[in-house]
């Protein structure tokens, strides 16, 4: 089966033998975009987070064949052109990682999360963002709860995201 996906602004063609190939495996195994990581492969860790039309998703939970015509953004597409994005820079300055395995997913998720918050998407913690409230640390933690860090760098990750949000 031949597919054409739009990834980081580029049209990319690939051939998959099985229509059940996940978007995550298509990225990593067919397109050499290995920045997106596979952790649990079951939608629980967030290591595979990419943006689909600006919204964050777990790429292990969706099939590549479903996304012709969508705009997919991976960690390789964040910060280009021109170097690091503000979120990437903040993760470096705040030491928002240890082993680094979850970091691409954390950064993609955090980048999309800030945009969701700016657009007033409510969360379980607070629904007052539509009134222009700042993100509290509790709010950041709740909105990032889909991205796990086994090194437990959460305080530094929250610092990096708060810094970027300000
Ligand atoms: Fe997709 Fe863990 S690899 S959520």
TrEMBL record:
SUPFAM superfamilies: 2Fe-2S ferredoxin-like, CO dehydrogenase ISP C-domain like. Pfam families: Fer2, Fer2_2. Keywords: 2Fe-2S, Iron, Iron-sulfur, Metal-binding, Oxidoreductase. It comes from the Bacteria. Residues 1-78 form the 2Fe-2S ferredoxin-type domain. GO terms for molecular function: 2 iron, 2 sulfur cluster binding; metal ion binding; oxidoreductase activity, acting on the aldehyde or oxo group of donors. The keyword Iron-sulfur applies. This is (2Fe-2S)-binding protein. It comes from Paracoccus contaminans.
């Amino acid at each position: 089966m031949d597919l054409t996906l739009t990834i980081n602004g580029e049209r990319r063609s690939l051939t998959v033998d099985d229509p059940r190939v996940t978007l995550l495996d298509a990225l990593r195994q067919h397109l050499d975009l290995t920045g997106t990581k596979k952790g649990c492969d079951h939608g629980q860790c967030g290591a595979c987070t990419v943006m689909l039309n600006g919204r964050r998703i777990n790429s292990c939970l969706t099939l590549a064949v479903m996304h012709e015509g969508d705009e997919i953004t991976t960690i390789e597409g964040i910060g280009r052109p021109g170097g690091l994005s503000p979120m990437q820079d903040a993760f470096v300055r705040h030491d928002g990682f240890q082993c680094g395995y979850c970091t691409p997913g954390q950064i993609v998720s955090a980048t999309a999360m800030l945009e969701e918050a700016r657009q007033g998407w409510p969360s379980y913690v607070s629904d007052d963002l539509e009134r222009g409230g700042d993100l509290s640390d509790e709010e950041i933690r709740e909105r990032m709860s889909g991205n796990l860090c086994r090194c437990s760098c959460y305080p530094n990750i929250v610092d990096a995201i708060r810094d970027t949000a300000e």
